[in-house]
Amino acid sequence: MVRAMATKIHTPGAAAASDGRRLVIGWLALVALLVFAMIVLGGVTRLTNSGLSMTDWKPITGWLPPLSHEAWMAEFERYKAFPEYQKINHGMTLSEFQGIYAFEFAHRLLGRVIGVAFFVPFVIFLLMGKIRREMAPRLMLLFALGGLQGAMGWFMVKSGLVDNPDVSHYRLTAHLALASLIYAVILWTIFDLLRPPYAGYAEAHRTVRRSALLLLALIALQIVIGGFVAGLNAGFIYTDWPLMGGSFLPDDMFDLAPLYHNFLENPGTVQFTHRMAGYAIAIMSIWLYLVSRGRDISYPARLGIAGLVTMVFIQVFLGIVTLLYVVPVPLGAAHQAGGMLVLSFALFVVHELSVERGSAKTGQRLS
């Protein structure tokens, strides 16, 4: 009776704190969704060969596209002075140029929107006291990483405005990895607000937690390898499955010297590595599911593991179909989105296994 009455008592301060926390969660969820869209749009920009259509960077004044025919012609003439037009797109019409320009412009505009959507509410919530003091440094670091990401994007584009009209796959991978890190930190912050971390761990969690951490590490590695695949156009060279050019190992797998260069520069080797990492992730996700059965873990963790395994196999299927159809833009974009969803599920599972143990049946916190 007393306990039931106590649950109905809400002090004004506690209610205000709860409302503030919901506001911050909603804001960060919106930013995470925008970053997710930014990553997918970045993949589309790559697949449509649009990334080099804008040959300068105006971080403050670049909010608007050319608004007149004269402005479009000036932009087009500037593009003609660079190797991509001269070596690949020579003879392109203005309307064709506008088509690729639209993707790159949308990508950059979305980056600016994310910056405003993050910074303005952050300042407002900070001044209103809605953001906990210990969380403010992490959020400020996130904003700094966002600025660094914009600079990294231009650093990447500059590498393609030279004799070889293609961006450095190292810089592209760094750009993707940093975007994924920003997305991951935002999600982890949301999970912290939803279920604050707890210092103690249940002994029964140890094997499950270590397996989940290993799986998360493999997923992070696969994102990096995926950046190499995209940067080297490695998805276009072997489009059969399960073999590569009729054999398990590609014929050119060890063509480069020294040997390790193949894993960094050889498209066939990079695609092979991407495939093997995908298989390892699928096997590891099944292992995680099996070792979690019968363990005293929370109901949300169980749901998260089931969702993770499901998403991993959907992603494997998307990867195979994308390869067999020679990387059409819709499937390539879906595969990019699938990778971020796999990362999201893995982060949720690891976080859930790192908070106070709840009931495996109800998912409620133990007091």
Q: How much helix is in the residues? A: 55-70%
Our count of domains comes out at: 2
Strand content: under 5%
Mean pLDDT across the residues is: 88
Number of DSSP helical runs: 12
Estimate the global geometry from the Cα principal axes.
flat
Give me the secondary-structure topology:
Blueprint: H1 2-7, H2 12-47, H3 69-80, H4 83-88, H5 94-128, H6 136-158, H7 169-194, H8 206-231, H9 262-265, H10 267-292, H11 299-324, H12 329-352
Summarize the structure in words.
The chain is mainly alpha-helical and 367 residues long. The protein folds into two domains: 9-194, no CATH class; 201-367. It is built from twelve helices and no strands. It has helices spanning 2-7, 12-47, 69-80, 83-88, 94-128, 136-158, 169-194, 206-231, 262-265, 267-292, 299-324, 329-352. α6 (136-158) runs antiparallel to α7 and α7 (169-194) packs across α12 (329-352). The longest helix has 36 residues, at 12-47. The two termini are 18 Å apart. Mean pLDDT is 88; it is low at 1-13 and 357-367.
Q: Tags for this entry?
A:
68% helix, 367 residues, single chain, mainly alpha, disordered N terminus
Provide a compact summary of the structure.
This protein has helices at 2-7, 12-47, 69-80, 83-88, 94-128, 136-158, 169-194, 206-231, 262-265, 267-292, 299-324, 329-352.
